[in-house]
Amino acid sequence: MSDSDDTRTTGDTAGRADHSHRTVIIAAVITGSATVIAAVIATMVAGGHSPKAPAAVAAPPASQQASATPRPVQSLPTTPSAPAPSPTAARVMAGPDSTAIGATVTITGSGFAAGEQVRITFSGTYGATLDLRDITAGPDGGFAAEVTVPDDSVDSDQQQSFEVRGLDSDKHADTPFHITG
Q1: 3-state secondary structure labels for all residues of 36-72
Q2: pLDDT per residue over 32-41, tens digit each?
Q3: Would the pTM of this model clear 0.90, i.e. be above it?
């Protein structure tokens, strides 16, 4: 019969405290062991000899030291971080982002070359695209243009978007749009 069985049948709170005390001791032993192991690994990586190395680690016999060749340290592969977005990445916004056919929408973009021709396109249902107009980016690479929402009445529940593409740089961006009946 285990300690936990004893405390359940007798209601002995001293047995619970004793079990809890053992759990704390076990956790402390595991933590201490992990600390010693980490110190040994760090010493081995740093060159193998350290005046602060734990006493529990014995050096190999002299006969093995002379013939032993150092083993290379294996390192874990590094995971490359995601690239930061380019400060000159093309961006586009439509205002408003949903409206009726025939309404005027302002398309604002940035991230293009100064003076670059930018084509504004509407991507409608079933992959249909309509070139709406070309505009010249300003000295800062940005632009603002008004366009009319085209008749795309095949199925207005499908995803539509406005897209912009630099004709020289081929930079492009899109923004979702929804035709409201």
Answers
A1: HHHHHHHHHHCCCCCCCCCCCCCCCCHHHHHHCCCCC
A2: 777 777 777 7
A3: no
